[in-house]
Each structure stands twice: as structure tokens, then as C-alpha cells.
Design brief:
alpha+beta, 5-stranded antiparallel β-sheet, 8 strands, 5 helices, 33% helix
């Protein structure tokens, strides 16, 4: 099912890019930097396989998320997908585990950035204002979940995980 939503992900990316400039003129945003401190892990699998794993772990594609980018990559990289997991279900969870996926430099790995934040469904204003975003908790929860499920991952230094110039992989 995740591959069926990839088209919607491309639409989300296009719309967010178009809306960001006019929204920023009035103090809002449709694109947002993913800080280095939200890096959780790298999976030695391309992102389509990672997405299938996330789906099996109870994550859902987050099509209303702002477009994430890591500007410490050269050129700046945009996430290929945004996923969210609600621990008590979408309508009951006050917080959500939010993951942003980035293609690794060769295209054969996927970098996962994570944070724990107020649910956009239950607390849309707090969520949009990025109140109570907790990278450490997001990383801990992501790693614990992957370890519980037996999913192997590595932690890669920033200079080894970001694409540079022509090495960036187009999705």
C-alpha cells in the first residue's frame, strides 16, 4: 500500500514548495529544517523497503506534514517521506512519533530522523508552533521500537550520511 501513496507524497512535496514562500511572508511555513539532533539511525535498505517496514510497525504516511529538509547537506536535501505513529491510536494520542526519511548518499540506505511531538490531530496549534518537540525522546522511542522488532540499524556520523553535490539521489 505504501507505493500507492508515493504519488501523493510527490504532490505534497510540490504543494509545500509552492506554498512556503507566500506563507513565510505572513509568518507561517510549509517547509522546515530537520535539525542534526533529530538524526536517529540509518537503515541499510532503500527507502521503499523502509516504508514497508514502517507500515507494518503501525506508522502511517503523514501527508499533511511540512516538507522537511536538512540544510547541512550540499545541496540541501528534502525528505522523501514523512511517517507518524500514534501510540494510543490517531484520535486518542496526545503525542506522536514523527519520522522523516532521507535517501542515503548512494541510494541504498535510508537515514531516519525522529522527534516526539504533540499530535497534529489533537493539538494542531501546539503541533504547528512546534511546541514541545522532543528529539531525544523521538530517537529513543524509534531505536527501542526497531530493536524490539529486530530491525538492525547503524548510527552514522553526519559527514558520512549526507549526499554531496551530484551524489544526491533523485527519487
Amino acid at each position: 500500500m505504501t507505493h500507492e501513496l508515493r504519488f501523493l507524497e510527490r504532490v505534497r512535496r510540490t504543494v509545500a514548495s509552492l506554498l512556503h514562500l507566500p506563507l513565510s511572508a505572513i509568518g507561517l511555513y510549509a517547509e522546515r529544517e530537520t535539525p542534526r539532533d533529530q538524526y536517529a539511525l540509518t537503515l541499510r535498505e532503500p527507502y521503499p523497503i523502509v516504508e514497508a517496514r514502517l507500515h507494518r510497525l503501525g506508522f502511517v504516511r503523514n501527508l499533511v506534514s511540512s516538507l522537511k529538509f536538512r540544510d547541512y547537506a550540499t545541496p540541501p536535501e528534502t525528505s522523501v517521506a514523512s511517517w507518524v505513529r500514534y501510540p494510543d491510536g490517531a484520535l486518542k494520542s496526545d503525542f506522536q512519533l514523527h519520522l522523516a526519511l532521507f535517501v542515503g548518499p548512494t541510494g541504498s540506505t535510508t537515514d531516519v530522523y525522529a522527534h516526539w511531538e504533540p499530535s497534529w490531530i489533537r493539538h494542531p496549534v501546539r503541533h504547528y508552533r512546534a511546541s514541545d518537540v522532543d528529539a531525544e525522546t523521538g530517537i529513543e522511542r524509534t531505536r527501542a521500537l526497531f530493536e524490539l522488532e529486530g530491525i538492525e540499524y547503524v548510527v552514522v556520523p553526519a559527514e558520512e550520511r549526507v549526499a554531496t553535490g551530484a551524489a544526491a539521489v533523485e527519487n
